Protein: BD-FAE-like domain-containing protein
Organism: Curvularia kusanoi
Amino acid sequence: MASLRVPYKTVGDVGIPTDIYIPKQTESKPAPILIMIHGGAFMLGHAGINSTDQIQDCLERGWIVLAIEHRLCPGVSVLDGPMADVHDALSWAQNGDLVRVLKEHGKELAVDAQRILVMGTSSGGHLALSTAWNSDRTPVAILDFYGPKCFADPFWSMPMPDMPEHFYNPLSDADVRAVYDEQAVFTGGLSLEGQASGADFSNTKQRQGFAMHQIAIGKVINTIWPLYPSNLEQIDPILNVSADWPPTAIVHGTADTMVPIRLSKEFEKRLRDNGVKTAFFEIEGEPHTFVGKMVKGSTTWETQRRGFDWLEERLKESCKQIE
């Protein structure tokens, strides 16, 4: 499954790239775009850990897939780094830059830059939701796989039980400083999603240990948002829901302990109370980060796939609205 890798923005002298996956275009209709955002507690991961089966499913639907990189915390805050990058990727696709890049690389493809979907897993789910506010043009619809939200909930300051013992031990001051000094890094640590990866992580042992320690001691939100618990309205999806929020579906496992399903249920209620078109797909017995481990054709696969079917329905509705 070949892709084209190009920068969608530059920070200093660092290009922040996206992998572009192109469907076989058999129809004359322009292809819609899906922006896919990886997980990793805002501090780990890279675009290569996205589910290749999900990408292939989207390509078979005729969608262009942008598997984007974003800067990693804590060298930048979640607002100034990951959230800003995702917003810029959305604008890049909407404003014709994707079409320009495809032409420059000899890809003659009809693109519908007005019909863009956004989805993500775990922290990527949160970042997908963040495109619903402070965007010049919001996406047609959003698909959130077990993304963190409701940051005022006491859960976010509680230690995580049952983690390997060594993750509760802090890193040295020098290792912590080294992680914070990485202010424009977009690849780091092993995948929390369990995906195989060919990336070289030989220099990311500090980042991996740092991130897993924050998860273990219940300090993820403190770490990515130094103002915590203040100004949560700048980063928390539930505090930004309004009647203008785009249609949103949530996929969440019932056995998730890293982001409890009740938080997504609370968020779903807020969406419905504001009249937002919403769907919720529970994955029975699945823990956090199940996407990286699911088997194509399994019950879990078929259930989560209903989220993509739901996105496809929103695309059809958007076509009728344009007509």
